[in-house]
Write a structure and sequence with these properties.
362 residues; mainly alpha; elongated; DNA-binding
DNA sequence: CGATATTAGTGAGCCACATAGAGGG
DNA sequence: ATCCCTCTATGTGGCTCACTAATAT
């Protein structure tokens, strides 16, 4: 059941820009959630649980963007696990993206399904009717240290979002790229540094991070600790929205977990997983094609967004780079300069070397 | 703790000239 | 309709300077 919905959303929204998520190599029906390195197989949660209940091979989550390849890194700013291709694609788009802090993804050895479920369990309301997460949130808001929200797994992120929505009714815009679309007023400790908050300074090591080996690889605890240690200031989110995109994706009725397919299982779609309340179910049902289209449009827009200077005419760039300057300003080219310039580098040759469109002028 | 000085960061503007594109013949 | 020519606006990178913010005294 959960897998079916999972798959549905893979194809509809998060499934790699219209491309269906990679199917499970075993059942061929559900979308793969993890990749087993030992077996070289893509597995859905159910098959993974069945196969790896005994043989606990090292597996990794699927890339959250393309869902076609195993994740290779986790991006702190995007709060996502990405494959090598998507990582290169996304984080080479602009200087801001390049500054995103990424860490090698660490394999999981427990059943992915159990991890998902344990995440949900940790989100179950306690006696006070609030989840552990909300407590962590509260602690954070009371002066706690940002404990690395970016380290959440897809499932835990979703759980967090849905729980948060259930609790406060506020939107949780995890889908948004916070550093590009919002003005966070205080979401991160070092926000005063402006865009430098892209790579937040960690004054204290997040509890869910464990140094695994001498290769500076972090063990991202995909199980439970991330949920309880995670903290986020939803208030700052809801109050600091400034982008026109904001009104596009989260509609206040549905979950904002489109990019976190694994989490759907715990969002009320898996009968085996306890979910606090029915609002998430209702919210899921309210996910319409319109919203999916909006989300898709947003993600495409975000993916293609570039903040660096766009060179429209490479030929002009080539000329500008070869032109003589005086204190940075373009200077008149003397005959000597012209000769030197031609001998030194011909813009046409430069463009030809760089495979630009050449407009011969010499 | 407030005032002043210093440092750091940011963005607009300038320059010459090849070229894209519009317009006319 | 097509081609050719002329003219104009555009875009290009490195540097300076003015301004603001942050930090130090």
């Amino acid at each position: 059941m959960g897998i079916e919905l999972h798959n549905h959303h893979h194809k509809g929204v998060s499934g790699g820009w219209g491309v269906a998520a990679k199917p499970c190599d075993t059942c061929k029906a559900a979308a793969s959630a993890v990749f087993c390195r030992v077996d070289s197989a893509f597995l859905c949660l159910n098959c993974d649980a069945r196969i790896h209940c005994v043989n606990k091979h090292a597996r990794v989550w699927m890339c959250e963007v393309c869902e076609q390849a195993p994740a290779a890194v986790t991006c702190k700013a995007d709060a996502a696990a990405l494959c090598v291709t998507c990582d290169n694609d996304i984080h080479s788009a602009n200087p801001l993206a390049r500054r995103h802090e990424r860490n090698p993804v660490e394999p999981l050895f427990d059943s992915a399904d159990s991890i998902v479920k344990s995440s949900a369990l940790n989100l179950a309301p306690n006696e006070n009717g609030s989840s552990e997460f909300s407590g962590a949130c509260q602690q954070h808001e009371e002066g706690g240290v940002d404990s690395g929200a970016w380290l959440m797994t897809p499932s835990s992120k979703l759980s967090l979002e849905s729980t948060n929505e259930m609790k406060s009714g506020e939107l949780f815009f995890s889908e948004m790229d916070p550093f590009l679309d919002f003005e966070y007023t205080n979401s991160y400790p070092n926000h005063s540094a402006g865009m430098d908050s892209v790579v937040p300074v960690q004054t204290s090591k997040p509890p869910q991070i464990q140094v695994m080996n001498n290769e500076n690889c972090f063990d991202i605890d995909f199980c439970r600790s991330k949920l309880t240690s995670f903290s986020y200031q939803t208030q700052s989110l809801s109050q600091s929205v400034s982008s026109s995109d904001v009104g596009v994706v989260p509609d206040g009725k549905s979950m904002s977990d489109i990019s976190y397919p694994f989490g759907r299982n715990i969002a009320g779609t898996d009968p085996n997983v306890p979910v606090s309340g029915t609002s998430t179910n209702q919210a899921t049902q309210l996910c319409g094609l319109d919203r999916e289209a909006r989300v898709l449009r947003y993600r495409e827009k975000r993916k293609n967004r570039k903040f660096e200077k766009t060179i429209r005419y490479h030929s002009r760039k080539a000329y500008a780079e070869t032109r003589p300057r005086i204190k940075g300003r373009f200077a008149k080219r003397t005959e000597v300069d012209s000769e030197v310039g031609r001998l030194y580098v011909s813009p046409a040759a430069f463009m030809a070397d760089n495979q630009y469109g050449v407009v011969p002028t010499f």
